[in-house]
Amino acid sequence: MKNHELTFVNHLGELRKRLIITLLAFIVFLFGSFMFVQEIYEWLIRDLNRDLAVLGPSEILWVYFMISGVSAFALTIPIAAHQTWLFVKPGLTKKERKITLAYIPGLFTLFITGLSFGYFVVYPIVLNFLLSLSKGTFETMFTAEKYFKFMINLTLPFGLLFEIPLIAMFLTSIGVINPIFLAKARKMSYFLLTLLAIFITPPDILSDILVIVPLFVLYEFSVTLSKIVYRKKIKKQQTDNNIIPLKKTS
Description:
Helix 3 (57-88) packs parallel to helix 6, helix 5 (103-134) crosses helix 6 (144-161) and helix 9 packs antiparallel against helix 10 (205-240). The termini are far apart. By secondary structure, the protein is mainly α. 80% of the residues lie in helices and 0% in strands. The protein has 10 helices and no strands.
């Protein structure tokens, strides 16, 4: 009983250590991003043909920290993934360590790809559509806080959604899901992804399609990757158990 308690305490201590390192990395990236926040701000509003208003001095600081926070979050992803890997490393075999370590660059790459898709594709379409509704009717004025909240809420989810294929691969490799499950859940997944796309885009069929199609492609890509990982896993189990697969007879 004491050994179990000591092991549990050791795990908690290790988890605490990994969380602290991740938090410190985020803080370092946050202040690093804040040093260049003016350049980032100017780049983000480069195509906006209007000035952004602020309702008070504190709002300027809030906007800068909001921009720096998203940048720091993106930069912290590889660190957080590596610390997670170090935490689970003792329970993995040598081969599993190499495989899981290879996921870390992919997490960061897919997150940046998702952010880019949201910012360069979805965001301009949604913004232009909403602005077109106000022509001849309203005089539009943006506050910096609301403008960047709108931008972040529209782009950040895509950074997370683009992680789906890699998460599917990882969960398949550890046996949580398999391609059969993903195939059976296709209809429900399509329905949920459609609802998500409609929720984050304006009531415009073109905008919905531009978001729904990539989400469906991501899901099918996840199923394909899951099949590849699952086949390799089954083949390895057969090899380890000295099982020779039967050849199909014509």
